Task: inverse folding
């Protein structure tokens, strides 16, 4: 069955969704399970003992043979080192994209008719060009790059968000980005204003804040050197607790020390007190982004959330206090950008008829509106201009995706495989 692929490669996690053609329409995107039972696989590449390049966290700590955080390094002149070999960050992103595309194509029995990959809204032409070149080097030539702002708006619009102008609040694993999106004269979403971000602030910082609370609560038990190996998985446990506290009001951090199992009780109020300064900084930056575009918060139609930590109740609480407009968050905001990317990919293959943008005061229509079906019209102009410049898109006739050729890194290290081999 023909399908398109939406791909979101974040600094800490990668997600993908597919939308399948059914007759003359596209069905709503479905999540692809990438890592075991999880819909999200860590954005980590590592060298296996046999020299092959694999995706996901390694079973043992291997800093020299593992690389992460390469997405935000795209555009840096200094390459990353993987197993002693210099690797441009954009090449690593392309390798991860190729792994996802192959994994999905193996499951679907064919390559996607089109692929849309979301990228940070702050990327300029230089970074986009670098990634395009890296993708083309792997013969991935039907991949369209779109700002995450646009793909997030697509996903929210498909779920019924009717707005014309919105702020996008993207809280990732270790980065935060604030940006604006609006419907242009052709009735399609585009990024405007100056996107702003905070490096090294995200969900992992919340995990670390909770871990510090646990260490303080354990006191002498943690002070003993023999306890440190037992606390190796503390951050992973804090991540679990963080997610649980989005629904529960209290829970326990569970650890096994040399003296036996221990429970450190944590309430949602305690956790929110730990992370409040960081969350407030993100809300302030979003407000600053809105003001820098010459708008006030009241002039927005909504705030659209994305990212794994966007479900934390404190985030919605502080945003609602600062923005007198609807604050929209999907059931699993970690998948929002990938879902919107698949919706945008449907438009690459089957563009909608153009329509004028509605007036802000009476906005009722939206890109990717609630009806899941999109008329399958070929040979029309694709949607979503990239920051006012002609987008790097496939030709009018969509050609099948060829099997990617191995990069120099893959040739040297073997076939790209997942962590389960």
Result:
């Amino acid at each position: 069955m023909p399908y398109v692929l939406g791909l979101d490669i974040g600094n800490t996690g990668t997600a993908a969704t597919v939308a399948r053609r059914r007759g003359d329409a596209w069905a709503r995107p479905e999540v692809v399970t990438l890592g075991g039972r999880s819909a999200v696989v860590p954005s980590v590449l590592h060298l296996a003992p046999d020299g092959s390049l694999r995706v996901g966290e390694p079973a043992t700590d291997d800093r020299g043979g593992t690389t992460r955080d390469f997405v935000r390094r795209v555009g840096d002149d200094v390459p990353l080192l993987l197993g002693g070999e210099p690797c441009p960050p954009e090449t690593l992103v392309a390798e991860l994209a190729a792994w996802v595309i192959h994994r999905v194509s193996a499951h679907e029995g064919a390559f996607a008719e089109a692929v849309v990959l979301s990228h940070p809204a702050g990327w300029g032409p230089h970074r986009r060009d670098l990634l395009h070149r890296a993708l083309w080097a792997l013969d991935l030539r039907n991949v369209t790059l779109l700002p995450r702002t646009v793909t997030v708006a697509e996903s929210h619009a498909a779920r019924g968000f009717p707005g014309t102008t919105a702020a996008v609040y993207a809280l990732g694993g270790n980065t935060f980005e604030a940006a604006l999106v609006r419907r242009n004269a052709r009735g399609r979403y585009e990024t405007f204003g100056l996107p702003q971000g905070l490096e090294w602030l995200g969900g992992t910082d919340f995990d670390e804040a909770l871990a510090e609370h646990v260490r303080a609560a354990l006191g002498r038990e943690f002070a003993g050197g023999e306890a440190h190996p037992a606390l190796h998985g503390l951050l992973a446990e804090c991540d679990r607790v963080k997610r649980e506290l989005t629904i529960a009001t209290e829970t326990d951090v569970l650890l096994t020390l040399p003296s036996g199992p221990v429970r450190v009780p944590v309430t949602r109020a305690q956790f929110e007190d730990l992370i409040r300064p960081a969350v407030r900084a993100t809300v302030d930056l979003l407000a600053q982004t809105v003001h820098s575009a010459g708008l006030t918060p009241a002039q927005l139609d909504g705030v659209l959330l994305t990212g794994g930590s966007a479900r934390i109740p404190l985030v919605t609480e502080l945003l609602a206090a600062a923005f007198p407009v609807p604050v929209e968050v999907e059931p699993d905001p970690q998948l929002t950008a990938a879902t919107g990317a698949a919706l945008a990919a449907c438009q690459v293959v089957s563009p909608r008829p153009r329509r004028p943008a509605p007036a802000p005061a009476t906005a009722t229509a939206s890109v990717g509106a609630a009806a899941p079906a999109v008329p399958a019209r070929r040979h029309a102009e694709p949607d979503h201009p990239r920051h006012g410049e002609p987008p790097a898109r496939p030709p009018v006739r969509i050609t099948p995706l060829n099997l990617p050729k191995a990069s120099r890194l893959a040739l040297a290290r073997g076939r790209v495989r997942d962590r389960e081999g």
Confidence is low (pLDDT under 50) at residues 360-421. The CA atoms of residues 162 and 364 lie 5 Å apart. The chain has two domains: 3-159+333-418, 203-271.
